[in-house]
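User: Before I run my own analysis I want an independent prediction to cross-check against. Here's the chain; please return only the structure tokens and, at the end, one sentence I can use as a sanity check.
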Amino acid sequence: MSEIKMTEEATTTQKSKRVFLKKVTSTAIITTIPSRSVWGMNHVSNGSIMPSMNGSDFGGVNQIILQDPQYWIGNQVLMSRSVLDQPFDDLFGGYAFKNTQSHHNHQTTISDILNGKKNKPDFYYGPDEINLWMVSLYFNALYSENYTFGCYYPVVGHGKSFVTAQDLAYYLYTSARNDTYSMAKNIRDIHELG
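Assistant: Structure tokens:
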């Protein structure tokens, strides 16, 4: 078989795997929010598709680089006050989760999530720290390719997974509302990949 024909078949296989994943795993964040781009060729076992282990971006050569929540907490002075002062619910489309079955109120800002209350820094983190992890993933996408922050998570923009960073935020919140603990674990796993 010619090299060109093999390349065309590989591309077709990758596309059909992505279509399959979109149809079958609409609630699985690991496949919906790209943390790895290239689905492994010839890694089909027991009917599942396993991601390649290269951590590169969407078929390109750039390495995915994610900053963790502690990084964002420590670097707020470099961030836009308009983002930090924005109410959580305005950005994510719903009130920040509490460790109980309720939610924080409208006055809870992104800065509150990062800083907590005096003597209780994790007050606004939510169950399994879901609020903190969502904010962290949002910042990684928002500030992707901004050399000040050193992160690269290109999922926002024309032709990408989400047109705007707010679309990503809404998606994160909706998914967390459906299954808070699984979502928190998935976002932590994505951070570990980057």
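Sanity check: Residues 155 and 161 are 5 Å apart (CA to CA).
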